[in-house]
């Protein structure tokens, strides 16, 4: 299968080809790649792509997986509408 | 190790300073950052670029920076797109005092060539139809304000700097500065000691700490400001909607998500960048009041970032009073991203001893020696 057809982050449609291109440009951490490719910024918040990208970074950079940090997790755990929060406050 | 110029901080300001020095032929520039690419305030900002300010200097810095952003892809020969979207900023007036002040602001802005205008409620609703008409009195609108991708704009500067030979050290932390004979002679990091000719403090939230390392007092402090991003949806809002009195800014970015942020008036000076439930509570109430339709969107993520505040909410772009080779670009009070091109140009002019394109006396750190000289910028969230 070609790199351009392998989806690494399905929330933001990022392929293996996109990932390798950015690593080749010198960005080597998950946090760098997150900001430039939007990996981990979608609704799943890297719950799906996190481990895939960590493994790929380790393989591509020839590092041990434990030496490749994943991203800093941020709230929310699950999406919730602003309106629902507002209704709960009013109760 | 010997280095000509050492810039502390690889956020948008540090990158722009490095670029503007390098493009003028300055060699041997090193930029040091303690974290990864855009890990500080730049990478956490609300991605807005506006020219509607209350002080003349902020208006000029923003206008001249916007002229740069409009051509940034070409000037920096960027292989991607900085995603400038000029669909305006709509700033809501919700009190009579604000209405009166905004009228004065627009006169000043127009005089300086900024195409802002006062719009009544009906006109504002034509620009953003989903506004709650009962939540504001009138507004001001500038069609050339808008959105810019902070990551890509920074990358555009970064790649141009690399081509010009600027050296970057990420994940390297400045631990101390050695001062001798009114000069910073050495920059000491956790990895290396550099002998430097010029040292530039562009450390954002840590500008005051870097100043202390050189035994100088920079009157700035850091403050946590929070923001959230919603799920992406089809385009439904062109301009940034902003209200100082209701404490909100809200814009749909080209990706489709809404970025919505506000200030916490109870925040104490600190380097805290955590997220709070109080922010979500307050924000959901404000959004549902002003733009009920946006209230239906799901929040995907929230985060905090650091505003480096100055007393008058205007930047310090200045040479040090005490040291001959120490310069600072800090205290942007949450707006360093949108002023970065001018920050870089002005600091490069100070370093090279050229006459600055703007008279920047009011941005000098000297203004704080006599507080009567300061003119507070109130158009901030």
From TrEMBL, chain A:
UniProt keyword Oxidoreductase, yes or no: yes
Alphabetical UniProt keywords: Oxidoreductase
InterPro entries: BFD-like_2Fe2S-bd_dom_sf (IPR041854), SoxA_A3 (IPR041117)
Name used for this protein in its record: SoxA A3 domain-containing protein
Membrane-traversing stretches: none
Coiled-coil ranges from the UniProt annotation: none
Molecular function terms, GO-annotated: oxidoreductase activity
Record keyword Transferase present: no
Domain of life the protein comes from: Bacteria
Residue ranges constituting the SoxA A3 domain according to the UniProt record: 11-84
Automatic annotation (TrEMBL), chain B:
Sorted UniProt keywords: Oxidoreductase
Highest taxon, organism lineage: Bacteria
Gene Ontology cellular component annotations, sorted alphabetically: cytoplasm
FAD dependent oxidoreductase domain span: 5-350
Residues annotated as signal peptide: none
GO molecular function, one term: oxidoreductase activity
UniProt-listed Pfam families: DAO
InterPro entries per UniProt: FAD-dep_OxRdtase, FAD/NAD-bd_sf
This protein's name: FAD-dependent oxidoreductase
Species annotation: Mariniplasma anaerobium
């Amino acid at each position: 299968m070609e790199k351009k057809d392998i989806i690494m982050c399905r929330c933001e449609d990022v392929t293996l080809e996109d990932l390798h291109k950015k690593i080749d440009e010198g960005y080597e951490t998950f946090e760098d790649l997150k900001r430039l490719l939007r990996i981990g910024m979608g609704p799943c918040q890297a719950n799906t792509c996190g481990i895939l990208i960590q493994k790929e970074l380790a393989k591509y950079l020839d590092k041990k997986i434990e030496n490749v940090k994943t991203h800093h997790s941020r709230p929310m755990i699950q999406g919730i509408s602003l309106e629902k929060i507002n209704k709960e406050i009013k109760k | 190790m010997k280095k000509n110029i050492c810039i502390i901080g690889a956020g948008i300001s540090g990158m722009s300073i490095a670029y503007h020095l390098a493009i003028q032929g300055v060699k041997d520039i090193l930029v040091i950052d303690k974290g990864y690419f855009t890990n500080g305030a730049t990478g956490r900002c609300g991605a807005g670029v506006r020219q509607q300010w209350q002080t003349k200097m902020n208006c000029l810095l923003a206008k001249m920076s916007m002229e740069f952003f409009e051509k940034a892809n070409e000037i920096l020969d960027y292989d991607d797109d900085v995603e400038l979207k000029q669909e305006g900023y709509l700033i809501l007036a919700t009190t009579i005092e604000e209405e009166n002040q905004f009228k004065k602001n627009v006169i000043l802005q127009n005089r300086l060539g900024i195409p802002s205008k006062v719009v009544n409620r009906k006109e504002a609703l034509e620009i953003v139809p989903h506004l709650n008409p009962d939540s504001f009195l009138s507004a001001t609108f500038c069609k050339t304000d808008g959105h810019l991708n902070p990551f890509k704009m920074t990358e555009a500067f970064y790649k141009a700097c690399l081509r010009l030979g600027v050296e970057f050290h990420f994940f390297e932390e400045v631990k101390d500065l050695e001062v001798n004979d009114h000069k910073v002679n050495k920059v000491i990091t956790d990895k290396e000691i550099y002998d430097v000719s010029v040292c530039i403090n562009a450390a954002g939230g840590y500008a005051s700490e870097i100043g202390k390392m050189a035994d100088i007092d920079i009157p700035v402090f850091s403050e946590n400001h929070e923001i959230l991003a919603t799920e992406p949806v089809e385009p439904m809002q062109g301009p940034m909607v902003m209200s100082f009195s209701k404490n909100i800014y809200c814009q749909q970015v080209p990706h489709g998500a809404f970025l919505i942020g506000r200030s916490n008036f109870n925040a104490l000076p600190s380097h805290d960048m955590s997220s709070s439930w109080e922010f979500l509570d307050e924000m959901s109430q404000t959004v549902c009041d002003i733009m009920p339709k946006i209230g239906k969107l799901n929040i995907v993520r929230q985060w905090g970032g650091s505003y480096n505040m100055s007393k008058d909410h205007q930047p310090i772009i200045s040479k040090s009073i005490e040291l001959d080779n120490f310069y600072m670009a800090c205290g942007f009070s949450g707006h360093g991203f949108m002023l970065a091109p001018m920050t870089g140009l002005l600091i490069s002019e100070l370093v090279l001893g050229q006459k600055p394109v703007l008279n920047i006396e009011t941005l000098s750190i000297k203004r704080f020696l006599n507080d009567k000289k300061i003119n507070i910028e109130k158009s901030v969230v």
